Amino acid sequence: MKIALVNLSKIQDFSKTPYYQASLEFLEENNIDYVDYFSGRENFEDLLNGFHEALGDDSVDLVWFIQGGSELIQFLNKIDWDLVRHSHKSFLGQSDFTHFAFRAIPLGVTCYYGPGLKQIKDYFPTAEQRQFVLDFLQNRKLQNYNGQILRGTTSLTLEDERIIGGHSFISAIMLAGAKIDMSNRVLFFEHHYIPGEEPKDVGYFLEAIKLNLASRPKAIILGHSVLFDKDKNMIDVAVINKYLLEQHIDLDIPVFYVDHFQKILKLS
Fold first, then answer.
1. Is-contact 112 266, C-beta < 8 A?
2. Where are the alpha helices (DSSP H) in the chain?
3. How far apart are CA 109 and CA 103, in angstroms?
4. First vs last Cα of the chain: how many Å apart?
5. From first to last of its 268 residues, what are the pLDDT tens digits of the chain?
6. CATH 3.50.30.60 residue spans of the chain
7. DSSP code of 6?
8. Could you say which DSSP state residue 160 is in?
9. pTM exceeding the 0.85 threshold for the entire prediction
10. How big is the chain by its Cα radius of gyration, in Å?
11. Within 10 Å of residue 169's Cβ, how many Cβ atoms?
12. 148-267 domain in CATH 3.40.190.290?
C-alpha cells in the first residue's frame, strides 16, 4: 500500500523546514512506500495541484495530510470534490484536517483522525509509542478504541459506529449549515490549547457545536483535550472532561473518553 503525502494546512514548502528530513526518515526506516506531493511547492496553487495529483495517482491508497495548521479552510472551495469522491482513497490527518473530513464524509469518503507526519518522532519518541501509527500505515490496523465510559450505560461498540468530528471550534464551524444527520453517528470532540484559554473556553465551543447539531448524536467521544494552567502546567484531561460533563453535556446520551493521542479514529 502506497501513501501520498500532501500539505494543505500551511502555505509553505515543508521540505525547507527543520522537520523535513526526520519526517521522511520515519517512513524510510520503516519501509513505508510513499509519494511526496508537497516538496518544492510553496504557494497556494502548487500545493492544491499537488493534492489533486495525489488523488489521480492510482498507485496510492491513503492520502496523509502531513501537518496541522490554520490554512486548510482556504482550500475548501477550491478542492475538486468530485475527484475526492471518485478517487477511492482514504485520508488521514488531524486538527484543521477536521475541515476536510466534514466535507468529505457526506460524499461517502472514509477519513482517519490521527497524527501528522511532522515531528512524529518528537511527539512519539520511542518505537513502541509509534507502533500504533505503523500498524495503521502498514496494515490499516486500528488499535481498539472502545474507550472509558464517563456517563451512561451502553452496548455501543465504538469500532462499529459511524464517528464524525474532530477539533472543537472547527467542528462548530463545519456543522453550521451542514445538516448532517447525527442520529446515526457518534460525535468526536477534542480541543488543543490556544494561549490564555481555560476549561470554560472549551465549554464555549461545545455549546456552539450543540447549537449547530441537526439532530442528537448517538453518543459523544471526548478526546484528549489539552489546556495549561497559569503556571504553564498541563491540566489533567480528567479535570477538563469532568468540567465538560458537569457544565456542558446535558444531552441524555452516553459519553466516552478516548485518548486520541494513542489511537487513530476512523471517521465516516
1. yes
2. 20-29, 44-55, 81-86, 97-104, 120-123, 127-139, 168-175, 199-212, 237-247
3. 9
4. 21
5. 799 999 999 999 999 999 999 999 999 999 999 999 999 999 999 999 999 999 999 999 999 999 999 999 999 999 999 999 999 999 999 999 999 999 999 999 999 999 999 999 999 999 999 999 999 999 999 988 877 999 998 888 999 999 999 999 999 999 998 889 999 999 999 999 888 899 999 999 999 999 999 999 999 999 999 999 988 899 999 999 999 999 999 888 999 999 999 999 999 9
6. 148-267
7. E
8. G
9. yes
10. 18
11. 17
12. no
Amino acid identity of residue 194, one-letter, is I
Query: Was domain 2-139 assigned CATH 3.40.50.11030?
Result: no
171 Cβ contact partners less than 8 Å away, ≥ 6 residues apart: 98, 102, 165, 187, 189, 205, 209
Q: Can you tell me which residue has the cell 489533567?
A: 236
